[in-house]
Amino acid sequence: MAPYGSDDSTTADETDDLRAGRRRAARYVVPVAVVGVAAATIGLVPALADSGDPDLPKISAQQLIEKIAASDVEQLSGTVKITTDLGLPDLGGLESSLTGGGSGSGSGSGDGSSADPTSKLTELATGTHTLRVAADGEDKQKLSLLENAAEYSLIHNGKDVWGYDSGTNEVFHATADDSDGKDKREEVPATPKDLTEDALKAVDDTTSVTVEGTAHVAGRDAYRLVIKPKDSGSTVGQVTVSVDAKTGLPLKFTLTPASGGAAVVDAGFTQISYAKPAASTFDFTPPKGAKVTEEDATAAPERHSGGSRHSGGFSGEEGFAPGGPGGPEGLDVIGEGWTSIATFDTGGQGSPSGSEAGGAFGGFLDSLGDKASGKFGEGTVFKTRLINALITNDGKVYVGAVTKDALVKAANEAK
Fold this sequence. Notes:
The chain is of the alpha+beta class and 415 residues long. It has two domains: 293 residues, outer membrane lipoprotein receptor (LolB), chain A (Clam), CATH 2.50.20.10; 96 residues, 2-Layer Sandwich (TATA-Binding Protein).
């Protein structure tokens, strides 16, 4: 299979055109109402592919980015599967205790609801899941997470956002007004298109973009767009996006780590239709006897403008804007592009064993990391296959999609 445009790697002269293309791409989102997991921790199992690669006209990387930008798909329905391989240990029920509850835990701690979308974060962060998605413009989306003996649905219809956990018969309801509704729907990328737009935000002169062959994805002919960091030090090996040759909609998204092995994120439709979903798809009435929890409007800005969308972003430019919604107050960014590192000061002791977590729990966290030392002093590096973080003993934090060595170097240079 000969690659299309294999010599079409971006250069500095093409950077402005690529940036213009990705800005236009970012406006053509088909939002799916899902909240709760970082871009870097969502993965969809590879889509079912037909045998053989389609014979399509040659296209350049710039043309394919423009095709994504021009995509006007607003109506679709389909099935996806989600798998995430960050290399995290099995923490059992620990995640739920940290996030205040989860599916099957009833209301969890406090007054939370298992139907609150944020309670699904830890479920999607590991393992394999099957989703059904549907969209009809910007005001109607539905995502259903199919579980062993239950189903969780998140529905956006006009100004209403509903979450329903059939396992606990709990309902969560929020109102999406003109000021915050869009932010709620776009906090977390849930489709290959959402993930692709996040990846395109990282395209600059530190990035190579090529078109490498074609593929069949969910019965559709597609081009394969390959995005790679040029600089060493990033944990990202490459991002591969299969783009519908006819509609320009990204159908599959795969993020491969620089360390090799299985993909960290692999997003693809197994089935897709561009027909208009029935209006009834987005109707929802709380079932009889269900416990209904209304969103606390006073808490909504903090929760929905938090770092969930940005904490796993590919570029510090977007996800780690200093002082912005991507992180805590005082957050700064070192470097640019794929090797950017977010840093902030906790204002206290950095070692988990000496933090508020304290005691045995803090020791447990310490056991998950690797000790590190340098001009900065001593600290602990917590690693996944994509995002790594260095927490120094004096409370400084350095985090990014970069290697341990890059974090240590950044900490040393900051002294």
